Amino acid sequence: MCGIVGYTGQRKALPILLDSLKRLEYRGYDSAGVAIVGSELKVVKDKGFIANLEAQLPAIEGTTGLAHTRWATHGAPSKVNAHPHVDCSGRLAIAHNGIIENFMEIRERMEKEGHVFASQTDTESLVHLVESYYDGNLETAVRSALREVRGSFAIAAVHADEPGRIVGARNESPLVIGVGPDENFLASDVPALLKHTDKVLYILDKEIVVLTASGVAISDLEGRTVSREPERITWTLEDAEKGGFEHFMLKEIFEQPAAIHETLLGRIANLDVNGFFAEGFTSVKLVACGTSYHAALVGKYILEEIAQIPASAELASEYRYAHGPSERPLVILLSQSGETADTLGAMREAKRRGCKTLGICNVVGSSLAREVDKTIYTRAGLEIGVAATKTFVTQLVALYLIALRGGLDRGTLGYEEADGLKDQLRSLPRAVQAVLNRSEEIERLAEKYRDAKDMFYIGRHVNYPVAMEGALKLKEISYVHAEAYAAGELKHGPLALLTPATPVVAIAVRDHTYEKMRSNIGEVVARGSPVLAIASEGDREIVKFVDDVLAVPELPGIFNPAPVTVAMQLFAYHLARTRQCPIDKPRNLAKSVTVE
Ligand code: M6R
Prior knowledge:
single chain; alpha/beta; Glutamine Phosphoribosylpyrophosphate, subunit 1, domain 1; Rossmann fold; 3 domains; seven-stranded antiparallel β-sheet; 18 helices; 34% helix; 23% strand; binds 5-amino-5-deoxy-1-O-phosphono-D-mannitol
């Protein structure tokens, strides 16, 4: 997954492109490049962050151009593999996000025809293919080339013979157009556009778009005109800035009480969410990747406990290739971005199997939101840090709402009981805020554990997937190896790994598993491992036999995941910070993964 931006208008393209590109750096950051069309085509690119590219850029004149920040798929991160790629004439440049699956056969054909390749990327095959069709009209050349291409792509192309024009296209990778007066923009994601316009046009699969300063023309691969009116977006430039916080991740962690509140707003009183349960589903399958998968695992407990409906969770990358039973559960797909390739693949597989699909998604207009039968939006706002934080807790909130609605629709939950659960849900922003107020204390704890090389996270019941989420946060931003286990499983193998050098984070809040957790913590302490317990406020017992305690407000069991997760987010954040890790841009990762 990569980020693409394009600009055509009256202003100098270079500063606009660089500024917009930086707002997409969360999509990939192993190399970057720009292509500007002035009196000729000028391309500059290099390995490393955008700042590295910027430092070496000469002033390039020109009011049309494109830029790219890369997350490597084919070809190592290097200057030569950085985008944009140029054709043999040096007059055509293309930036690409996605994977051209049949790039090898195209490359062999192009090489036979005499095209000379400079990189190992799949993208360069497309560049030479477009070149082979080019006869003075970039749009028709791109259209002809794309008819031969298999795979996922969002592309932007410019040609020195057609200054003032950008041709874009998409299939299974996001592409959005920003519409301005006398200028137009193209980008992989909305944050790149917020500084310039709030009017956007989403390009759909197998569509081509031509941008000039005065217009945007969309057509399909067959050349038929597509009419679409721009939409207004509600995210603002402020949402895309750090707002005084050192990192986006910290800002987003602190936005969680507001994000939960927003997600509940207008929905909780009447449980105004349609989870399809009135249609008589007897089971639910929750499908997602990464942090969203952890929310799905928590969702299984929420749905089974509140709505009394059998539920299971599956990784999207596994679900899509499983030979499932013939029953047709309601399939709930969770995705912050709505663009994760594995989750989209799973959604399409669920539809192929004849299942109804419900999306829980944060990005309005995303591929998931467009293709599922119904979407419940998490109103977390823009999330830029690669580590998912506020979108996880708002996914949980959506699941609580669905479960409450489902319980009532199925007659498995009484109105009085539902009212009590709603009150708990309303109290979540307060509980999360109480954890945020302990940020400094958590920072001190993180400093204590900063030199750990391996850590374990344990929990039971709903706190088992929460432990998985805690471990994932630590791994991805601090590079400390962390494993999560269901606490009862330690004795079945992992105990062999415990030593005084392997701290254990134990989620031991006061719920029906508390006594058992205490026994499991005892097993850990007996092996000499330091224990950091996440425990309910006021628990005077646990402090006696663990090394450190991080207190969270006491809540009924099923509502603990949000505050506990927030505590672990802060722990991971501060630990990564003391280790001077690039928190918003962890190595090898990118925010949304649009390849399989
Ligand atoms: O956009 P999605 O929710 O579909 O993304 C799924 C995962 O790629 C994502 O949650 C990833 O695991 C995060 N980096 C975790 O912090």
